[in-house]
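To illustrate this point, what follows is a protein record of this kind.

___
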Amino acid sequence: MKASDNFLSSESVAGIPIITVTGTPRTMGQKLGERLRPRITVLIQDVCEQLCRHHEPGLIDSSGGFNRSGGQELIESLVKPTQIFLAEHSPSLWSEIKAMATAAEVDPIYLLAVNAFNDLLDIHNSAEALFESNVISLAARQTEDNRALLGFDWNIPPYLIPHLTLVRRIPSNGPATLSLGLAGLHTIAGLNGAGVAISSNDLRFATGGTPAMSSTSLIHSALSTITWEESVHTIQQTACLGSRAFHLLNKDNQRISFEKSGAFTAVIPDTIEHAPRIHTNHRLVTNPIDNTAPLSKGLDLKQNNHPAVRHSQVRLKRLAGHVRKARACNPQIMNSWFESTHTENTSGRFRSKAFMEPVAACVAVLEPRSNTIWCHAGASPRDLENVSI
């Protein structure tokens, strides 16, 4: 489709809208807010409703929705620490969010709540209120065109599917990026023009509660850097509000994964360079091996019997059966592996207590050498479609 003005154009891939913005962070935020205002309004209502259900159910009005007049104080108290941290450590992103809020005619605290949604559920209701997600990293020798791939699925309530958005940012300074998130916020994965791809998935272990950046803001900040080394450094050194695993891959087939929560950071060992890597929702590193302090409490995977962890381990084994000996793979083949986790043993799947609803999957495969994302979203299996920066 043709650009609607000098700053923004629209298209879609696999039913997911793509918004393109250029310019300074403030300009890009303004255009995102103008274009996505209706989605942002509805998303804020849904997110704040869930946060209130966990913290102060009395703030849910008689119709079952979020009472904004009574709930703003709660939301502000939840996001204030991450607002201060974000303004200090990523002023460009904070500038974009403020401009986006002004254009969408909402208070910036609500956009911060959307960005920190999973983290805020995590730190106040650990191991129960998170979304199932699986990540597969394939080495170059396993793919049909000798290009490493980073794929994941994200299982979310169906009401969030309409908010999925791909945002292509072309900044005045720095690399162009293409990111996947909710209504221009809550970035869960993306890649940049420097040839870096990042995906992430929720972890299920207690956070240290350190003042920190939301995990989705951290991904946005890492994608905005110019080099691989800077992206890795940003993820490794910045405290993370909730618990999340981050997976990075570059155009030269280098990769690294971290498990983070609060000030805790652990690098997942990658001793076999050409082997596939699979990560579901439980910790693979049970002891900190980085230069940070361990958490005061966490999950001992050998003893913990929480259903979230048990099913995470089942998915890990199931995916390993597909991936271990695979050769000449492509994004469509990876898509079929993720679909197997949606269709097998459905009756036994862990369901979040926060969302007692069926789940719908968003699947994406990132290839940083060509700066391409293959993706689809929805309750029904379908082939992936692709878009590039």
Q: What stands out?
A: The CA atoms of residues 7 and 21 lie 5 Å apart.
